[in-house]
Amino acid sequence: MKGLMMLFLVSSTSRSCLAFQRTFSPSFTRKTTLSATSFIDTITKAFSSTMSDSKTYTVGITGASGLVGTALRDELAKKGTIHGKPIRIVNMRRSNQASSELSEEETSIAWNPKGISPEEILPTAAEFDAVVHLAGENIATGLGPLGFIGLRPWSDAKKAEILNSRVESSKALSTAFTATKKPVVFMAASGVGAYGNTFIGESKPAVDEQADISSTEGFLAEVSRQAEVASQTANKAVRVVNMRFGVVLSTKGGALAKLAPIFWLGGGGNVGSGDQYFSFISARDVARAIVHGMETPSLKGPVNFCAPQPCTNAQFTQALGKALSRPTILPFPGFAVSLLFGEMGEETLLGGVRAIPTKLLKSGFQFSHPTVEDAVKSALDESI
């Protein structure tokens, strides 16, 4: 109770000071706001670390073997501690029967995305300090034996699988936390596709988390909307962060893993007009940003996980060609994209998103790779 009263007094005092400065000081700047936010976050972090008597900071990850999951596990291992506690990573695997307990020695646990009650879905929810939900159907591959090729992959059945894999699992995990009173961070994957795919050329300005996504067009926009709504079932003790990912750049997976060999052979070039915007983030920065999200109590709701300087497809092409010392003179015409990849190609390759990470920047996060040149170099140099 004393801790709660102290936190209330500190927060109230900080808000009063900020109000005074805004009213009477013409030199009130963004730096002051950041300092106050950081101060409140620091106090809240210290308070939060006393709320659990566990010896470790336990992080559960779904989709832990994927591109982002692998990068996150690497970053957590490098970091070592959160809130002064050793980090414990638990791989969360799907099953029709959820594990009934989580011992201190276990590094893997079963959860049931088809369960109805918290006890059926994740009985061990109270054992976690943070759960990062990354699992979901791959959007770039089709169904069937040759689905991995990715030719016109978005059949009606595939789109239903993409949507259900994200919405149902997010709702299940969110429901699992309705029974716990322990402060937990639930970080659920979403995407900058929530803003639509019409950011072509300079005519449409960049958007941040304040943008209205209620009527944005495109299949991925609909997936993001529904998944974010599904994640909000959890009770007020749970801090929900909807991670709107840009394209994660890594040679270990994702778009760059497919493009790098083509560019290396001299087959790279602009896709379509090359004017479509491209919101990206390095694998290292996305992992660092997720950890920052765990540690920063002020971050909640939709948060853009993308670099602060979005580029066009032409700028990305130039950066990758330069990094590999290869020419980029073979364009990929728009009609060929539509013919080979159908709706998926039109939305993800010919469409564009120009998002900026306002919330991350205001919370004090510093990008290691803010430009596309930096991010491409990181992808080629890093082991994640």
TrEMBL record:
Domain called DUF1731: residue spans: 333-378
SUPFAM superfamilies: NAD(P)-binding Rossmann-fold domains
Domain NAD-dependent epimerase/dehydratase: residue ranges: 61-298
Keyword list, A-Z: Signal
Keyword Chloroplast: no
Signal peptide: 1-19
Stored Pfam families: DUF1731, Epimerase
PANTHER family referenced in this protein's UniProt entry, alphabetically: EPIMERASE FAMILY PROTEIN SDR39U1, SUGAR NUCLEOTIDE EPIMERASE RELATED
Protein's name in the database: Epimerase family protein SDR39U1
Organism for this UniProt entry: Fistulifera solaris
